[in-house]
Amino acid sequence: MQLYSRFVRVELTGENPYSPQSDPIPVRNGLNLAKWIKRKPSPAIKPHHKVARATFAAKFLSKIRIWRRIVFSDENKFNLYGPDGFQYYWHDVRNDHELFSKRASGEGSVMVWAGMNYFGKTEIAFLEGRQNSECNTKTLDGYLTPFLEYLRENHGISRPIFQQDNASIHESRFTKAHIEALGIRKLKWPAKSPDLNPIENVWGQLAWSVYEGGWQFDSKEELKAQITRSWNNIKQNNLRHLVEGIPTRMAHVVLKNGGPIDK
């Protein structure tokens, strides 16, 4: 509730403890998102991670417009019985009850990949089997490349920038060579930084929609169909607000000397 209260105070009074000249839209974005509490353990951030995160945040703190050029990406898992065994779910703090009843774990799940940007989002990709570098590059060819072309043709983003985390299949020589051969500019992303990636918030919104009312699924096909419907229903304004709120995240990271932030 501390995060919620702070955003309420900022929204009602116009006071911004971090930057008196900041745009009010990120603040409203924080207010809208603060009703959700994300229960996901933060990754272990060591001192060298904090230094890298703080350096990254300070570098991009004033580069407001660059975020519109970046395509943020990530993988996520959806289970038949609920969001990731209750280690990862969102709870509406306006309601006292929590929505999901628990089945036995291991009853089936699907893995997805997607990307989002200020101007839109990719199609959602369903990943089959164990993923390696070759699988990853095929996903990028099938889903990222068409979206980058869409940004170039429809929004004048001649040099879009691609973001992905530092998973081994993302950082392999095979993947790096493939991305370079495609002429895709890649953002150097600090390790242990899911809290800086706005697509994490999109996953939360998507999970809420997929499992709304405690819904559970009898088959992977049924789950995939609902994920696709929910993904297609994510509003463009949500994506824009998240991207507009990134400078606020950067300010929080700088103030916390690279430590984890609420987002």
Question: What is the H-and-E element order?
Answer: HHEHEEEEEHEHHEHHHH
Q: What CATH first level would be assigned?
A: Alpha Beta
CATH topology: Nucleotidyltransferase, domain 5
Structural class: alpha/beta
Tell me how many strands there are: 8
Strand content: 5-15%
The percentage helix is 40-55%
| Contiguous uncertain segments of 5+ residues | 1-39, 85-106
> What would you call the shape?
globular
Distance between the termini: 13 Å
Count of all domains: 1
CATH architecture: 2-Layer Sandwich
Q: What is the residue-averaged pLDDT?
A: 82
The number of helical elements comes to: 10
* Major sheet attributes: 6 strands, mixed
User: Which homologous superfamily in CATH is the superfamily?
Assistant: Ribonuclease H-like superfamily/Ribonuclease H
Radius of gyration: 18 Å
Oligomeric form: single chain
Pfam families: DDE_3
Domain Tc1-like transposase DDE: 69-223
InterPro entries: RNaseH_sf, Tc1-like_DDE_dom, Transposase_5
GO molecular function, one term: nucleic acid binding
